[in-house]
Amino acid sequence: MMNTEEMELKCPVCRKTHVVEKKVDVIVCRSRMVAVVRDRHGWRLMEVNTISEKQDSELDRQWGYHEG
After folding, report:
1. pTM to 2 decimal places
2. What is the rounded radius of gyration, in angstroms, for the C-alpha atoms of the chain?
3. DSSP line for 1-68
């Protein structure tokens, strides 16, 4: 039985439902990282994709982020 701080969310990796706490967190499903997030669409699970340093630098440039 779920308590008031838990919820069921559909997983984008396995397509099943996971019971998770109502907090931003990272869980593992089938050896893949899945983030528990809350945004304008409410609570949901999103798969975490790893990017290279080059891709990270390109995204920083596009978003106007500069170190220093």
Report:
1. 0.72
2. 15
3. ---TTEEEEE-TTTSSEEEEESS-EEEEETTEEEEEEEETTEEEEEE-----HHHHHHHHHHHT----
**pLDDT (tens digit, 9 = 90+) per residue, 13-38?**
999 999 999 999 999 999 999 999 99
41-65 pLDDT, tens digit each: 999 999 999 999 999 999 999 998 7
- Which two structure tokens, joined as six digits, stand for 7? 């919820």
55 alpha-carbon distance from chain centroid: 19
Q: Which two tokens stand for residue 63?
A: 């978003």
